[in-house]
Specification:
Blueprint (H helix, E strand, L loop, with lengths): L2 H15 L18 E5 L5 H12 L2 E6 L5 H5 L2 E8 L2 E8 L3 H13 L4 E6 L9 H10 L1 E2 L2 E2 L4 E7 L13 H4 L3 E5 L3 H10 L4 H9 L6 E5 L2 E5 L1 H16 L6 H5 L5 H21 L1 H5 L5 H9 L2 H46 L3 H24 L5 H20 L6 H41 L3 H12 L1 H10 L2 H6 L6 H14 L3
Parallel strand pairs: 1-8, 1-9, 2-5, 5-8
Antiparallel strand pairs: 3-4, 6-7, 10-11
Helix pairs in contact: 1-2, 8-14, 11-14, 13-17, 14-15, 14-16, 14-17, 14-18, 14-19, 15-16, 15-17, 18-19, 19-21
């Protein structure tokens, strides 16, 4: 299965394992909740999906790479204690709490989250001394004398033997207690993840034309060389910062992430062309509707890889606009909810300006504490963390804007005026971004008609979270015209009414 299919399998497993009856007992007894064992090549995103699952399901997450552990850190350290058996004192060996189990209890204590995932990576590559303890844990959910808290699901992962010489096979008794998931590398499944992570357009265009180079591990006379999903994503971060700092990009940089020299050299050549295409096609002019006949004819006459690169460049620019618009929209919606509480207090309790400042300060403190708790549980995505911090910053700005006046209503009216101005500016930004999308469709239709290029662009818009959310919220006549079956008009109208209500003060 693909990594996205594996993600859904794990989420569904967590759901059924946490299902309880009217007395609060698990419908699947805890000892019958088989740990998941996910097998897949290195760098295909096994760890990444665990973070996504914890964030989306709002549960705790504790992750460990088992190759870094010794028997003592996993089981605990031995010590001698005294017990009385049949009236006779006996010296008995016990163990301190396992570092791994202790980490789970730490998350529970700090966050209050009783449910979560314990993710143990590279579990089939542990040392000979640790291996028996791992087998016991997978079978009985116990390290040393301490069991994993109920409500915490074990998800483990490992590499197939062809990718790691240290891989050990589990015995039948252990295998019969696990849920096996075999994950295969798949560019089509990774594409959606990549768009959501804003992977560099040059990488996306290169892999779209050369899908077989997405994931490669081969043995040469100099050892193993590879290109992996993790490598492409990490290279994307580096490329963007190199470009921002105007540092020249060379093959040596590519080889630091994509160690297969053939693929690295081919990507470097493509990247150079990609940068040239950016200059030739003036993407911002296309988005603003300022393209001419010459530009559309140039695109129509271009080779296939150049056309794909052009669409990826346009998508990359649009994606940034979509994300900014949606991010600001979410910020205003979250802030509006907090300000409505202040408005209610002004109307009902006649609070003063200084009381309003205290109320806003408390709102900020509560949200900051919420951020800390979610971070401690490893269940806060990067996007959610950014939004929460932005809300805290805006509420802090409003806190500074309020004066210590007696008339609380007058002070709130000042906040409302500022907020409404931001909302108006945001509405205009949404409209401007929508216009850029319509201009893009106009250019692509003029250059390529309704051919495969337009189909490819529609596929990108549908698979990307930012683009699909933007179209659902704002609408797009051209998108509906070319792809009527993928979005429902009623959903768009309903969302518009919801957004209008959320921003109303």
């Amino acid at each position: 299965m693909t990594i996205l299919e594996a993600k859904e399998v794990i989420k569904n497993t967590v759901r059924i394992y946490l299902e309880t009856d009217e007395l609060g007992d698990f419908l699947i007894p805890y000892m019958k909740q088989r740990p998941i064992f996910m097998i897949g090549a290195p760098g295909i995103g096994k760890t990444a999906i665990m973070e996504q699952i914890a964030s989306e399901m709002d549960i705790g997450l504790v992750s460990y790479s088992m190759t870094h552990h010794t028997r003592q850190s996993a089981i605990g350290l031995p010590f001698i204690t005294t017990e009385v058996y049949n009236g006779q004192e006996m010296r008995v060996s016990r163990y301190t709490m396992s570092e791994i189990i202790a980490s789970v209890y730490d998350v529970i204590e700090r966050t209050g989250k009783q449910n979560g995932i314990l993710f143990l990576d590279e579990i089939n590559c542990v040392s000979e001394t640790l291996s028996p303890a791992i087998l016991q844990f997978l079978q009985y959910k116990t390290f040393g004398n301490v069991s994993l808290p109920q409500g915490w699901i074990i998800v483990s992962a490992g590499n197939p033997p062809e990718y790691n010489k240290s891989v050990k096979d589990f015995d039948i008794a252990t295998r019969d207690r696990l849920k096996y998931i075999y994950v295969e590398e798949n560019f089509e499944a990774w594409r959606k993840y990549a768009y959501d992570r804003s992977v560099h357009g040059a990488i996306m265009a290169f892999l779209e034309v050369n899908k077989s180079w997405f994931y490669v591990i081969r043995t040469t006379v100099d050892g193993q060389v590879f290109a992996t999903a993790r490598g492409w994503e990490d290279l994307s971060y580096a490329l963007k910062l190199y470009e921002k700092k105007e540092i020249p990009v060379g093959t040596n940089l590519i080889l630091q992430y994509i160690t297969d020299p053939d693929i690295a050299r081919k990507f470097m050549a493509f990247y150079a062309l990609f940068k040239k295409y950016q200059e030739d096609y003036r993407i911002e002019d296309i988005l603003m509707g300022k393209f001419d006949e010459t530009l559309s004819q140039k695109a129509a006459a271009a080779a296939f890889d150049e056309r794909i690169a052009l669409i990826e460049m346009i998508e990359e620019a649009l994606r940034a606009a979509f994300q900014t618009a949606l991010e600001t929209q979410a910020l205003l919606e979250e802030t509006a909810g907090q300000l409505r509480l202040v408005k209610k207090a002004v109307q009902e309790k006649k609070i003063t300006g200084i009381q309003m400042k205290e109320m806003l300060s408390q709102c900020v403190q509560e949200r900051e504490e919420h951020i800390k708790l979610k971070q401690k549980a490893n269940s806060l995505s990067a996007e959610d963390r950014r939004r929460e911090k932005q809300v805290c910053r805006l509420l802090s700005d409003y806190h500074a804007l309020v004066k210590d006046a007696v008339d609380g209503k007058k002070e709130f009216d000042r906040l409302k005026k500022d907020f409404n101005a931001r909302a108006k500016k945001q509405a205009q930004a949404m409209n401007d971004t929508g216009t850029k999308l319509e201009n893009t469709f106009a250019f692509l239709e003029k250059a390529f008609g309704t051919g495969q290029e337009l189909t490819y662009f529609l596929t990108i818009l549908t698979s990307g979270s930012a683009s699909s959310q933007f179209i659902a919220r704002h609408g797009s006549e051209a998108y509906y015209r070319f792809n009527k079956t993928l979005l429902v008009y009623d959903v768009h109208e309903q969302l518009k009414e919801t957004i209008k209500a959320e921003l109303s003060l």
